[in-house]
TrEMBL record:
Transmembrane segments: none annotated. It holds the Pfam family Peptidase_M23. Residues 262-277, 286-305 have a biased composition (Low complexity). Keywords: Coiled coil, Signal. SUPFAM superfamilies: Duplicated hybrid motif (SSF51261). InterPro entries: Cell_wall_metabolism_enzyme, Dup_hybrid_motif, M23ase_b-sheet_dom. This is Peptidoglycan DD-metalloendopeptidase family protein. Residues 358-449 form the M23ase beta-sheet core domain. The keyword Coiled coil applies. The keyword Coiled coil applies. Residues 52-114 form a coiled coil.
Length: 457
């Protein structure tokens, strides 16, 4: 009897198949994330290009133009890095698929060889007479049944072997098609990478040209910087005054509330009980013609209020806590744009040995872009400062957000605003730069807005 094993080298165990499926799925997820990141970066490049085109309408180079070029360069580099990562995945896929194709081809060769042996062995007993003689030549009935089962199994094995060869051929064809697609995708990505690298070189050249032009305007830049520092100082003073005033106002309100509560408590203690006493009890407790003395309780003192933070009511405490809980997830004050100048101290982009300090972040965007409240709150201040244009300051409990360089304002002091509500539009300078100055404060402490804003706009 011939023993056939239907397990060629191309047949994977279930555990191997599951492992390969998990690996492929993980790779697909990573590739999907990279593709999504590339699309996002390309969208950011388009957005920045529109902002850059707006600044380039003016013939004279400007810091806004330089900032837009820097942002576009940064995103362009990110696109190239993402494409490189995608190429690595594709190269890995091509190598893996090539190996699988080779294994399948070897398996197919072996299956065909096994099938040829089966056909050859079957040809020897192809005659019905020979098959019957083989059966009746058995020494016993049990042997006859075994030989009959063997003949049937032999026929089934041939059919399964033929089906497996067909399935393997189809699988091989699918693998070859997938390999061709992956190679085409790799070729397309390489072409895209080359094009993006050329764009990067073009952007670097443009940046160098703008820096050269700006370096020739050093005196004008220093005057612009001095004017900005004066405007920032005026804005800082305004914020400090308004925060102090709000802390004092909240403290007075807290003391008044405490005094009212103390008066109510004293009135309640001074009011005689309304329960009716029986005569016997009255005579036992007080002598006729005398008045029982009521012991005086010590007067309540107003709670001490701190002078460095806003005293919160139950409602404003909830709002303040909610604002704090949304740290890192808060809405951006504009729907599009990029951070052109970050929080804190950093070197001037053109002037050497000059350090500038930013109390918030500058967000460069498009002309006429709506500015919106990032969270629910109350409009504390609407003002106008030279160099900062119109300013809106919104209170969120003990937190404050400041929106400066607004062209127009659509809210008033004391107005309650909701998140996403438009409070004005961004101002566009004579150089064509539309830039919003945005700050976050907690009482008198200046905070980094980037730690509070969401990464997704």
């Amino acid at each position: 009897m011939i023993l056939l094993v239907l397990c060629g080298p191309g047949n994977l165990t279930q555990a191997q198949q599951r492992k390969r499926t998990r690996t492929a799925t993980s790779t697909r997820k990573s590739k999907t994330q990279l593709e999504r990141e590339r699309r996002t970066n390309l969208r950011r490049i388009q957005e920045t290009s529109r902002i850059l085109a707006q600044t380039q309408k003016q013939k004279q180079a400007s810091l806004g133009q330089l900032n837009a070029l820097k942002e576009k360069l940064t995103v362009q580099k990110s696109v190239i890095r993402t494409i490189s990562s995608e190429l690595k995945y594709l190269e890995s896929d091509v190598r893996q698929t090539t190996t699988q194709v080779q294994q399948t081809q070897q398996s197919l060769v072996q299956l065909k060889a096994e099938y040829a042996r089966l056909i050859y062995a079957s040809a020897k007993t192809a005659n019905s007479y020979n098959r019957i003689m083989f059966l009746f030549a058995a020494d016993s009935f049990n042997q006859l049944m075994l030989r009959l089962r063997y003949v049937r199994q032999y026929s089934e094995v041939r059919q399964k072997q033929a089906a497996q060869i067909t399935s393997t051929q189809q699988h091989l064809s699918s693998q070859l098609t997938g390999l061709t697609v992956k190679k085409q995708e790799k070729s397309s990505l390489l072409t895209t990478q080359v094009a993006e690298s050329r764009n990067l070189l073009t952007l670097k050249t443009q940046q160098d040209q703008v820096v050269t032009k700006l370096s020739q305007q050093e005196e004008g830049l220093r005057q612009e910087l001095a004017a900005r520092q004066q405007a920032v100082s005026r804005l800082d003073n305004l914020i400090a005054v308004r925060v102090r005033e709000e802390i004092a106002r909240a403290a007075r309100a807290a003391r008044a509330m405490a005094a009212r509560n103390a008066a109510k408590a004293a009135t309640a203690r001074a009011t005689p009980p309304t329960t009716t006493r029986r005569p016997a009890e009255s005579s036992d407790r007080a002598t006729p013609g005398t008045t029982a003395a009521t012991p005086e309780a010590p007067a309540e003192e107003a709670p001490a209020t701190r002078t460095d933070r806003v005293a919160l009511t139950p409602e404003t405490a909830v709002l303040s806590s909610s604002f704090a809980d949304n740290r890192g997830r808060l809405l951006w004050p504009v729907g599009r744009g990029f951070i052109s100048q970050r929080f804190g101290r950093h070197s001037h982009p053109v002037l050497k040995n000059v350090i500038v300090e930013n109390r918030g972040v500058d967000i460069q965007t498009g002309a006429g872009e709506p500015v919106r409240a990032i969270f629910d709150g109350k409009v504390l201040t609407v003002a106008s400062i030279a160099g900062m244009n119109n300013i809106v300051m919104i209170q969120h409990g003990e937190y404050f957000t400041v929106y400066a360089r607004l062209r127009g304002v659509s809210v008033t002091e004391g107005q309650q605003v909701k998140m996403r509500q438009q409070i004005g539009t961004v101002y566009t300078s004579a150089e064509g730069t539309s830039e919003l100055q945005f700050q976050v404060w907690r009482n008198s402490s200046n905070l980094n807005p980037e730690n509070w804003l969401s990464r997704n706009r």
